[in-house]
Design brief:
It contains 16 helices and 21 strands. Helix 14 packs parallel to helix 16. It has four domains: 142 residues, Methylthiotransferase, N-terminal domain (Rossmann fold, 3-Layer(aba) Sandwich); 126 residues, Transcription Regulator spoIIAA (2-Layer Sandwich), CATH 3.30.750; 115 residues, Transcription Regulator spoIIAA (2-Layer Sandwich), CATH 3.30.750; 56 residues, Nucleic acid-binding proteins (OB fold (Dihydrolipoamide Acetyltransferase, E2P)), CATH 2.40.50. Strand 18 and strand 19 form a beta hairpin. It is α/β, with parallel strands linked by helices. The structure holds 5'-deoxyadenosine and iron/sulfur cluster (SF4).
């Protein structure tokens, strides 16, 4: 089951292939780990370098520039990258001038280790410094160590058209904001990605229109906390805005409304919502537009108000359940998914029971589940003892995973017997006679191909299911 892969680590690696504009004779290999935001950033990186004439390769052995876009959210992600860098280093034997670089969230923390102590890489670049990559590559090629991990208060890459690296050509990620100001005590993101800033809505709308023109039929608006999106033009922080400026600015509900109007055939999704900031306004905009998908990813992290307080999440169990009630009321049938951490500092068996009972009460369709991994610099690392023994963290994780498996199966079964509007993404994994797509709730639906093709919308009568896939026929 998909959830089982995720317990271990939600990281996926991917090599990419795309055409170049004006070839400079150099080949780029780019591998991405971590969240959707990182994959979206890789599309910015690719765009910047293709513009400089790079071509790409899926084989790092033949690359002149090898980049790995990294994730620092949990410890095991870091270990994996370290291993990968050892593989990449082999390239230097036949191509001593090759440039090996680390991009993204690990850059700031591990810069000196990677560059100097272990001599694993030639270049280290943080998530706000990608415009500087062409210069830094040149610097590295001339034998100097190239580094830029400066975090910006303004950078949103608003004017850079991402080079779409996804394989299906149907769904595109559109980054709407960067960074995070929340300071959840377990989370390293505010340190690796810096302060929160929102992107100009006009550039977001243009990107969505361009995606539609290019054949895409779904956009996912991305941000660490999309509900706190606020664009005021002057780059001012929310707290600093006058009432007048606030009225003139664009919030997330308004942005969502505008994106939904780009085209009724362009589906809109978004991620990630934060329970403390998710307003009824957003839910009402979702209910108003048929093309905004009925699916909300609302990370709860824990079902215990005591643990939530220590996590600095800014809400209680009751507040969270009230938000769920609002979703159920305003958008009946909405798919709901979540993130859960087991074994956070001070978590008792009682707290664990509260997490399990909350999961049951909500009946999540899907969940990403993790054992707590202490991260350097975070509030939790400074304030609390990582006192839940590893085997207990793992046992609790297994309990959460087992319960979620039942909940996901029940949620899948509940969708059988109805007609679902499906956006086709491509062939099913098992057969080229079958197509796969997703319904509004984000469940995978599989059905016979007939004359349909990816990018089409079809109505599928679902007649059966496996644990996580709906099976049916176009009606
Ligand atoms: N340990 C375990 N899981 C974490 N997450 C974030 N930081 C940590 C950590 N230190 C999880 C949270 C978050 C998701 C993206 O990753 O559940 O919502
Ligand atoms: Fe991390 Fe919390 Fe920000 Fe999410 S909202 S990125 S968990 S600090």
């Amino acid at each position: 089951m998909e959830t089982e892969k995720i317990i271990d680590e939600s990281v996926q690696g991917e090599a990419l292939l795309m055409p170049s504009k004006i070839p400079n004779g150099k080949k780029l290999f780019l591998e991405s780990y971590g969240c959707q935001m990182n994959f979206s950033d890789s599309e910015i990186v690719a765009s910047i370098l293709i513009d400089k004439g790079f071509t790409t390769t899926q084989n790092f052995e033949e690359a002149d520039v090898i980049f790995v876009n990294t994730c620092a959210i949990r410890d095991n992600a870091e270990n994996r990258v370290r291993q990968r860098l050892q593989d990449y280093k082999r390239v230097k034997r036949h191509n001593p001038d090759a440039v090996i670089g680390v991009l993204g969230c690990m850059a700031e923390r591990l810069k000196s280790q990677f560059l100097e102590e272990e001599k694993l890489v030639d270049l280290v670049v943080g998530p706000d410094a990608y415009r500087d990559l062409p210069n830094l590559i040149e610097q590295a090629e001339s034998g100097q160590k190239a580094i830029n991990v400066i975090l910006s208060k303004e950078e949103t890459y608003a004017d850079i058209a991402p080079l779409r690296l996804d394989k299906n050509g149907v769904s595109a990620f559109v980054s709407i904001m960067r960074g995070c100001d929340n300071m959840c005590s377990f989370c390293v993101v505010p340190f690796t990605r810096g302060r929160e800033r929102s992107r100009d809505p006009e550039s977001i709308l243009k990107e969505c229109r361009d995606a539609f023109e290019a054949g895409y039929r779904e956009v996912t608006l991305l941000g660490q906390n999309v509900d706190s999106y606020l664009y005021s033009g002057g780059g001012l922080k929310k707290e600093k805005l006058t009432e007048e400026q606030k009225l003139a600015s664009v919030n997330f509900a308004q942005l969502l409304d505008k994106v939904a109007l780009v085209n009724p055939d362009l589906r809109v999704r978004f991620s990630t919502s934060h329970p403390k900031d998710m307003t009824d306004d957003v839910l009402e905009v979702m209910a108003k537009h048929e093309n905004i998908c009925n699916n909300i990813h609302l990370p709860v992290q824990s079902g215990s108000s005591k643990v939530l307080e220590m996590m600095n999440r800014g809400y209680t169990r009751e507040w969270y359940l009230d938000r769920i009630a609002a979703i159920r009321h305003i958008i009946p049938g909405c798919g709901i998914s979540t993130d859960i951490i087991t074994g956070f500092c001070g978590e008792t068996d009682e707290d664990q029971q509260l997490t399990l009972s909350l999961m049951q009460e909500v009946g999540y369709d899907f969940a990403f589940m993790f054992a707590y991994s202490e991260r350097p610099k975070t509030l939790a690392e400074r304030k609390y003892k990582d006192d839940v023994p590893e085997p207990v963290k793992m046992k609790r994780l297994q309990e959460v995973v087992a319960l979620q498996r039942q909940l996901s199966e029940a949620a899948t079964k509940k969708q059988v017997g109805y007609v679902h509007k499906v956006l086709i993404e491509g062939f099913s994994k098992k057969s080229e006679d079958m197509l796969m797509g997703r319904n509004s709730q984000n469940s995978v639906v599989v059905f016979p191909k007939l004359h349909y093709k990816k990018g089409d919308y079809v109505n599928v009568m679902v007649s059966s299911c496996t644990s996580s896939t709906l099976i049916g026929e176009v009606v």
